[in-house]
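Slide 14.
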Amino acid sequence: QVQLVESGGGLVQAGGSLRLSCVASARTFSTYSMGWFRQAPGKEREFVAAIRWGGGITYYADYADSVKDRFTVSRDNAENTVYLQMNRLKPDDTAVYYCAAKRDKATMPRTADEYDYWGQGTQVIVSS
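Slide 15: predicted structure.
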């Protein structure tokens, strides 16, 4: 069983930045693909970003169109941590953000059902 703990959420004005962190309890963290999803009130959970390790210094990342060029996903395998740097935040980014882990470093799906473990979520509120 892998536990994921997110942190870093909060209240920020539009145009501001936040950095979310997710620490995983997995012994072999580098073999997991990691994803970030979000869920706004009354809406379905949606894909935000994902990252997998390709070996050495190679990482592969994927982003939803709505956050591309504003958000950056990264990971530190030595610290069992994945990050989501969020810049130029908009009110539409308001949601609970979830970290997810998939036991497969070869793929980084955009579908929530394909992930094996989930964190409890961290609230992000962007005021206009």
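Speaker note: The CA atoms of residues 43 and 69 lie 23 Å apart.
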